[in-house]
C-alpha cells in the first residue's frame, strides 16, 4: 500500500500542498474568504455574471418550474425543454448546426476523445486506431481525455506548429483516426493558440481539430462568441468546438458545437454524456439569461478589455515582468513554488486574493502568481494590485 501520510508530508515540504478556503457569499469584485473581505484577482467569472440579478432570478424560476435536480440522464428523461432551448441558442450563437450540453468541461473533453478515438461497440465494425496529438501546455482535462481514449498520444511543443507537423507525419491517415487538441486560451499562461495554423496543419493530414475555448468564450470575439470569431476563422466540418459555461457566463457546465453528424455521434457514443445525470434544468435557464446578457450588454466585454490594457500598461511602467498574454489571465512567473506561495499569502494579508499556481499544474520551476481580471474591477483596484506586487515581487527579485 502507498504511504499516503508520507506523500502528503512531502507535498508540504516541497511547497506543493493545497488547502481549500471557504467562500462566504457570491463571486464578485470583492469576496469574503475564510471570514476576510478581499479584492478578488483569481476568479474566472470574467464578466461578473455569476451574481447578476437577472441570472439569479432565472435560476429561481427554473427551480420552481423543474425542481432542483434533473433526476436522470439526458437519454432517459432528464433532458428538459430548458436544456433543449439552451442547446439551440448556443448553436445559433456559435453559428453551428447543433450543440450538446455536458455537465462540465472536463466531462466534455473526456467524452469527445473517448467517442472518437475508442473502438466501436457495434458488432463487426471496422477496427479504429486512434492518434491523439496535443499541445504540451493543454489543460489537464485534455491530457486525461487522451489517456482514457486508449489512443496513441503525441505532444507537440507549445504553440510550435512545425513541431505539430512533425507529429502529424508520424500518424497514418489511411489507418488511424487523428485528433489534434489545443486550448485556445491557455489557462495558466493566458496566451492564445494560432487557430489558422492549427487548421492548416490538420487539413494537410485529414485530422480532426478540437478546440477547448473555456477561457475565450464570452470574452473574445464579436459579442463574446469566442476565439474563432476573435481570430476571424470560419468553422469547418473538421473542427470540434468546446466551451464552458462556468467562467464568463457565470453558471456551470459546458457544450460542444459542430455538425449534425458529430453531435448525434456524441449523443450515441460519449460515455460521459450517456451515463451521467443531466445538469439541473434551472442551471440551463440561468445560462440562457447569461447568454442574453452577453449579447445585449457588450460594455462588459469592453470594460474587461480596458482593465487588461490598464493592468499591462501599469505593470510595465512599474517594471513587473509579465508573460505574453493579452487576455484576462495575466500570470507573473516566480519560479520557486514556496516563494510563489509566500507572496500569495502576503498579498492575502494585504487584502488581495491572488492564486499561487504550482507544479504539477504547471511545469517544475515555473510556479507563478495567476492574476485574473474582471469587467467590474476599478482602476484603484488595479493600482493597489500593482503597487503591492511591486513591493512583494520586485523586492524578492
Describe the protein's architecture and organization.
- Strand 1 and strand 2 form a beta hairpin.
- The chain is α/β, with parallel strands linked by helices and 397 residues long.
- The longest helix has 20 residues.
- It folds into two domains: 130 residues, Aspartate Aminotransferase, domain 1 (Alpha-Beta Complex), CATH 3.90.1150.10; 244 residues, Type I PLP-dependent aspartate aminotransferase-like (Major domain) (Aspartate Aminotransferase, domain 2, 3-Layer(aba) Sandwich), CATH 3.40.640.10.
- Helices cover 43% and strands 17% of the residues.
- The strands form three sheets. It has a seven-stranded mixed beta sheet with strand order 3-9-8-7-6-4-5, with helices on both faces. The chain has a three-stranded mixed beta sheet with strand order 1-2-11, covered by helices on one side. A three-stranded antiparallel beta sheet has the order 10-13-12, covered by helices on one side.
- It has 15 helices and 13 strands.
- Helix 2 runs antiparallel to helix 12, helix 4 runs parallel beside helix 12 and helix 5 packs parallel to helix 6.
Amino acid at each position: 500500500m502507498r504511504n499516503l501520510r508520507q506523500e502528503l508530508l512531502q507535498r508540504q515540504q516541497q511547497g506543493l500542498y493545497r488547502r481549500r478556503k471557504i467562500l462566504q457569499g457570491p463571486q464578485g469584485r470583492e469576496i469574503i474568504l475564510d471570514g476576510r473581505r478581499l479584492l478578488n484577482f483569481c476568479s474566472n467569472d470574467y464578466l461578473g455574471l455569476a451574481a447578476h440579478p437577472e441570472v439569479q432570478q432565472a435560476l429561481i424560476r427554473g427551480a420552481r418550474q423543474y425542481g432542483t435536480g434533473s433526476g436522470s440522464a439526458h437519454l432517459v428523461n432528464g433532458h428538459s425543454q430548458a436544456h433543449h432551448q439552451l442547446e439551440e441558442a448556443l448553436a445559433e450563437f456559435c453559428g453551428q448546426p447543433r450543440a450538446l450540453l455536458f455537465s462540465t468541461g472536463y466531462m466534455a473533453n473526456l467524452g469527445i476523445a473517448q467517442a472518437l478515438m475508442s473502438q466501436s461497440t457495434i458488432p463487426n465494425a471496422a477496427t479504429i486506431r486512434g492518434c491523439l496529438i496535443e499541445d504540451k501546455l493543454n489543460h489537464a482535462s485534455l491530457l486525461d481525455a487522451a489517456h482514457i481514449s486508449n489512443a496513441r498520444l503525441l505532444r507537440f511543443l507549445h504553440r510550435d506548429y512545425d513541431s505539430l507537423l512533425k507529429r502529424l507525419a508520424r500518424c497514418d491517415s489511411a489507418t488511424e483516426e487523428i485528433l489534434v487538441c489545443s486550448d485556445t486560451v491557455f489557462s495558466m499562461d493566458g496566451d492564445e493558440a494560432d487557430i489558422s495554423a492549427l487548421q492548416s496543419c490538420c487539413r494537410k493530414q485529414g485530422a480532426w481539430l478540437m478546440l477547448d475555448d473555456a477561457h475565450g468564450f464570452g470574452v473574445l470575439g464579436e459579442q463574446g462568441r469566442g476565439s474563432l470569431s476573435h481570430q476571424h476563422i470560419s468553422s469547418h466540418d473538421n473542427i470540434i468546438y468546446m466551451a464552458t459555461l462556468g467562467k464568463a457566463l457565470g453558471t456551470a457546465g459546458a457544450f460542444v458545437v459542430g455538425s449534425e453528424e458529430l453531435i448525434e455521434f456524441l449523443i450515441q457514443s460519449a460515455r460521459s454524456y450517456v451515463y451521467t445525470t443531466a445538469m439541473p434544468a434551472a442551471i440551463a435557464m440561468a445560462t440562457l439569461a447569461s447568454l442574453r446578457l452577453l449579447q445585449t450588454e457588450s460594455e462588459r466585454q469592453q470594460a474587461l478589455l480596458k482593465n487588461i490594457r490598464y493592468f499591462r500598461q501599469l505593470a510595465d511602467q512599474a517594471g513587473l515582468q509579465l508573460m505574453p498574454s493579452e487576455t484576462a489571465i495575466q500570470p507573473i512567473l516566480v519560479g520557486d513554488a514556496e516563494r510563489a506561495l509566500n507572496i500569495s499569502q502576503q498579498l492575502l494579508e494585504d487584502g488581495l486574493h491572488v492564486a499561487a499556481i504550482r507544479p504539477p499544474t504547471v511545469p517544475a520551476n515555473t510556479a507563478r502568481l495567476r492574476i485574473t481580471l474582471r469587467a467590474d474591477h476599478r482602476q484603484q483596484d488595479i493600482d493597489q494590485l500593482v503597487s503591492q506586487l511591486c513591493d512583494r515581487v520586485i523586492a524578492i527579485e
